[in-house]
Please model this.
Amino acid sequence: MDITLTHLDSTKSARELIPNTDPATGVTVFTGRPGKSADRAFATTRDFLGGFGVRDDIAGGGRSVSDDVLHIRARLAAFETRLVVVRHADMLHPFGNTDLLDILADVVTGADARLALTCDDVAGGDLAGWVEARGGRVHDDDAEMLGLLPSTTPREPTGIRGDFPASVPRGDFYVFRARARDLLTAEEFAAVDAVYLRTAKGVLTNPFIGEVEAGDRLLALCQTTENPAEVVTMIRAAQAAMFRHSVLLKVDLDHFLRLVPHGEHRPLSQPELRALRAYRGTWRPAAVVLLDAGLSVDAVAALRVSEVNTEGDIAGLPLSVPSQEVLRVHSTYLGLLGAQASDPLVPVDPRRISTARRDAAIDLGIPGDTPNRSREDKAHDRFRGLLGVSLRQLDINASPPSTDQGAA
Amino acid sequence: MKTDLLTSIGIETRFVATPFLVDGLETINSVVSLNRIAAIEGPAGSGKTTTVRYFRNSTDRPCALATMPGKPAPLDLLRFVYQALHGVPPHGRMTRFELQNELLDYLVEWRGVLIVDELQNSAVASMQDLVWLYEESGHAFAVVVVGTNVLEAVSAYPQLLSRVMGAVSFRALTGEALLEAVKGLDSRFEVTPNGVLLTHDQNACGGILRRWVQTAMWLNSAGHPDGEPVTRDQFSDIARRLPTWTSH
Model:
């Protein structure tokens, strides 16, 4: 049985010596946590799942330790984990009670992975006894174990320019500039106002003459940036400028934002797909990646377990590596539950499939799907063809009807 | 020393920087600047808590002071730290797991100094919680543990003891240091002969400044004017009222 105990320098932070890893590297790390024996099993399985990126504060957390163990086993197999490192493992061994360690060892070594326990060099006497009784080795030198850890990967750049704020107030065009002035810092407002004034002046001197032309020109403007906040600023400026020409320019903002590489409604990027690891339950991330790959809700509901191969691929569906990883975890978990090849891959009501991406957007802060995309998009749809743009001449002589509370 | 600072740290006489207080502040400042753990121990009334309160009210970093009760319940360390950080007690039904997670999320961003007073009353499980928060946050905050014999108590959990980077042991004041501190404490002691002061210290105070502060308060209640020396008889009368001093 491949179990080791490594003593670490207690004057250094264990997290610094052994940082968290990307589970896709085959190495998973978590920390032993103090607690009463009754709580400790629950806390340990949660922390173990946390090593795979699972978060405890979002939907589908559950409270079952035995189900947690199934989820851990599914991830150990799907990520082909070869090493599980436990920081401060002495906390899993309270007062000589080895029950939790026995379960942990069985789960990890049962997946052909190595269990590398670590603890301070001033502690772990009893733990060493347990490791040796299990046929493991005790190291006072941490070099061998630390050498097995993957190197830290740098964070992927966002691709958004730094001189423009990442978000701006979403008020309508007549309050946009005032709200931006109130809510943004002076530097941010200066950047926003420069774009706003440049766009407004352009439209003031050369107003839109029709809906199609307005859509084309707005589209061209929006394609000059990757920042959705800048798109919002330009559109609001164009609306204000057209209002000066007594024309109400109505724009469906979400249609334009969908065209922006870093906008809110677009296919998920790889880091965003990896954020789906936060779900403990596996069906929701699976539904999100399948919808994101272009399948309709009905098509997702019709998929069978047998259609996902061992790599996490589905024939004819282009899937990125993080999407394959999500499907591998899900199908492995279904397999552990005893699912048959002909069983549905996403065994929930289609209505829950249809809301999965919106739920993920709320839970994880990733882009949501466009709110008004129909099940059957038609190219000749006037609304979509015109990018949700309409122009309406305002009658400057007409007064709005009055009410007790003011103008209607 | 500003009056509002003195009031905020609970001092009712003039502020006196004893050698232990100076040493304690230097140690805390050095250890805290590296986000490590400091320990302040010593007998009751020797100025440990005054020192950490002075530090708390004079540092630029955010500080939270959690004082442990005499017989803490298993979750009391987490609960008291939560209350010190948030100003309100945690929800009654929060589990240890939830408290740990909530505190960890906060402490990672907080980057302040957590002071745990009277830690010697806590069980090893509470010290485990403290070490776990400190380690899981990646040493994102500094810790000062305070209490009578706190180092001895901490030695029951070597993982905490080994992380203590600096410690100061406060003791009862004696000799010149005692006279300097006592005279600095009150204008009436300043003009009282040294022999009279030392006799009262032997009879009632045992080198503990808290006893001297109580002596000054007895003088106040008797209407003894500022700048007037205190006689042996007046000290004897006060010594009779003060409880018998037992040195730790």
Summary: Residues 195 and 232 of chain B are 10 Å apart (CA to CA). The interface with chain A takes residues 74, 95-97, 100-101, 125, 128-129, 131-132, 135-136, 138-139, 158-159, 161-163 of chain B (CB under 8 Å).
